[in-house]
Amino acid sequence: MEQGFDEAKAQRNWLERLGEKIPGFRGFQDRELRREVDKLQREYLASQITQYKSSLRKVAERYTDAGKIGVLHLFDRLDKRLDGLARAVKFSDYGATGFFDVIKVDAGALEELYQFDLALIEELSGLGDDIAGIPAPAAGDPTEALEVTLDRLQRMEDRWAAREGAVNKVVKTAGD
Fold first, then answer.
1. Three-state SS string across the chain, please?
2. Which range of residues forms the domain containing residue 82?
3. What are the tens digits of pLDDT across the range 64-104?
4. How many distinct structural domains can be found in the chain?
5. Which of 49, 135, 140, 145 has CB 3.0 to 4.6 Å from 86, enough for a Cys bridge?
6. For residues 31 and 106, is the Cβ–Cβ distance under 8 A?
7. Number of neighbouring beta carbons within 10 Å of residue 96
């Protein structure tokens, strides 16, 4: 997220750069920019999760078409949890908790928050690999591959839940 914030900050127009000269305006500007970058990041993560959900559904359809319905409950469980994580990421309300209302943010606490984001993005890439690695219906039992995918999804859900603690730490640190 920090890289996105820096890139967005560098692309400000002349009026925004002029506003930086007004006392207090820069903090407002940075707050709004952080809010926008955070929103874009959450939308990106949610859209990736939704794409993986679509890929998973295509694999499940192949199993249905092949008449191998014994494992569809695992596909369904994974589908529902992917949907839940996508919604949690996209519609989380932590932007209203005070994180964006502070002008000065502790760099260390913010770095910890960005580490959560980076780890989630890396796990997201692995999730795509896991789904792509589910064997075709004729290639064998997908149970193990689906359980590995469910385990990764659990780590992602746990990481997202822990991120709220990191956000709260940023808010607490900045409010001290």
1. CHHHHHHHHHCCCHHHHHHCCCCCHHHHHHHHHHHHHHHHHHHHHHHHHHHHHHHHHHHHHHHHHCCCCCCHHHHHHHHHHHHHHHHHHHHCCHHHCCCCCCCCCCHHHHHHHHHHHHHHHHHHHHHHHHHHCCCCHHHCCCHHHHHHHHHHHHHHHHHHHHHHHHHHHHHHHHHC
2. 46-175
3. 999 999 999 999 999 999 999 999 888 875 544 444 454 45
4. 1
5. 49
6. no
7. 10
Instruction: Please report the pLDDT score of residue 103 as a whole number.
Output: 46
Task: Please report whether residue 142 resides in a domain.
Answer: yes
Distance between CA atoms of residues 2 and 29, nearest Å: 15
* CA nearest to 153, candidates 118, 135, 126: 126
Query: Which positions ≥6 away from 65 have C-beta within 8 Å?
Result: 137
pLDDT tens across 124-161, in order? 999 999 999 999 999 989 999 999 999 999 999 998 88
Examine residue 89 and state whether it is found in any structural domain, yes or no: yes
Rounded Cα distance, 164 and 50, in Å? 22
The pTM of this model reads 0.73
Joined together, the tokens standing for residue 149 give: 């995918």
Instruction: Fill in the amino acid letter for 45.
Output: L
